[in-house]
Design goal:
Chain lengths: 147, 256
């Protein structure tokens, strides 16, 4: 039995040890905004915030999240980051977008505006097949300025 | 893919963890940050019957003692306290990605002993060591045995890694080449140089960090002669030897 807070709501659920946090969010809780791509930590689509820190939910066991506070894309308040994604055409199919939004929100919460190098480094951990990345770089930089 | 079923143990003390590991022997795997182990579980390359999660053990300290930094096993790769440790701080941006460094641990990467990993290479170049639950201190040169294999005995847990602090008069450099940012290194090199010494270690071209006996007159060329890369789908042995030459020349030039 684990107890977690997801997007401000508390859940108590019985989980098998081998259940990944990504599958717990999607299948047990029905929060399908967290996407699953590669299931080995390469694509970044499943990124969520665990106690504030962006992590791959496919590389965390649900049991390890016992007592933790999790934020998924469903719990991300609409704001400058999403506005900047829209304004810069930083998404098309949207498969990678939730993971990138959660990772970028962690980066932006760490203080001053990130450098272009820091944004590019962040995006090295996220596969996007639609945009060519440049619009995402611009969107994150613009969101940082808007803060 | 999904992991095969296993039993999950979450000890609260090192003693309890060691007892659990001793009880299950080869059937147990230690789970730290999980950034290498969980992919292996997901792909079923690893099928332990017991997973021992060490994240709640009190192994999160970073302290400075007698000219060395002692880094607890579960200290995260993203931990800002690592910024003062030479070479380690320089190689961290090459270790996976922003998001994986948030969860991956220093001790986990050392104990995993991937031949392409940055942290084992840097620990070897600094001549650091590993402290275990039995009280042993194992020098890096003896700790890394071969691919994914260390000098840890069954039931023995890595509790701390020891990294020599920056010394006045020593210069440090790290260089790496990978096909994509954050991907496994095709080749990496580290150098430490002082008035009377030049240490160079290369990684990813052999089964463990490989010290090089560098000819100062032709550092890269002499290094390339001392490695026998096996080659991969992505890089032929000749290309890897060329990478050794270029990266060793770069680190040696930087510490000159």
């Amino acid at each position: 039995m684990i107890e977690v807070t997801v997007n401000g709501r508390r859940y108590r659920e019985q989980v098998e040890p081998r259940l990944l946090l990504s599958d717990f969010l999607r299948h047990t809780l029905g929060l399908t905004g967290t996407h699953v791509g590669c299931e080995h930590g390469v694509c970044g689509a499943c990124t969520v915030r665990l106690d504030g820190v962006a992590v791959r939910s496919c590389l965390v066991l649900a049991v390890q999240a016992d007592g933790a506070e999790i934020q998924t894309v469903e719990g991300l308040v609409w704001g400058p980051l999403q506005e900047a994604f829209r304004a810069n055409h930083a998404l098309q199919c949207g498969f990678c977008t939730p993971g990138i939004l959660l990772a970028a929100s962690d980066l932006l919460d760490r203080g001053g505006p990130p450098t272009r190098e820091e944004i590019v480094d962040l995006l090295s951990g996220h596969l996007c097949r639609c945009t060519g990345y440049e619009p995402i770089v611009r969107a994150i930089a613009q969101a940082a300025e808007a803060r | 893919m999904k992991p095969a079923a296993f039993r999950y143990e979450r000890p609260e003390s090192v003693e309890e963890a060691v007892a659990t590991l001793a009880e299950h022997g080869d059937e147990a795997r230690v789970l730290a940050g999980g950034q290498s182990l969980v992919p292996m579980l997901n792909m079923r390359l690893a099928r332990p019957s017991v997973v021992v999660d060490v994240n709640r053990l009190p192994l999160g300290d970073v302290t400075r003692e007698n000219g060395s930094w002692r880094v607890g096993a579960t200290v995260l790769q993203a931990d800002p306290r690592l910024a003062e440790i030479p070479l380690l701080a320089e190689c961290i941006p090459y270790v996976g990605h922003f998001v994986t460094r948030n969860r991956g641990t220093v001790g986990g990467s050392i104990a995993h002993a991937d031949a392409a990993a940055e942290l084992p290479l840097v620990l070897a170049a600094l001549r650091g060591s590993v402290v275990t639950s039995t009280g042993r201190t194992i020098p890096a040169a003896e700790f890394f045995v071969t691919h994914f294999t260390t000098a840890l005995e069954p039931g023995e847990l890595l509790v701390e890694t020891v990294w020599p602090a920056a010394e006045a008069g020593l210069r440090y450099a790290f260089e790496e080449f990978a096909l994509r940012r954050g991907d496994f290194a095709l080749c990496a090199a580290a150098a430490v140089a002082g008035p009377n010494e030049l240490r160079v270690v290369v990684g990813s071209v052999a089964d463990r960090p490989t010290p090089i006996d560098v000819d100062p007159a032709r550092p890269g060329a002499s290094a390339a002669e001392q490695v026998e890369p096996w080659g991969t789908l992505h890089a032929s042995p000749g290309y890897l030897r060329q990478l050794v030459r270029v990266l060793v020349d770069r680190v040696v030039e930087r510490v000159a």
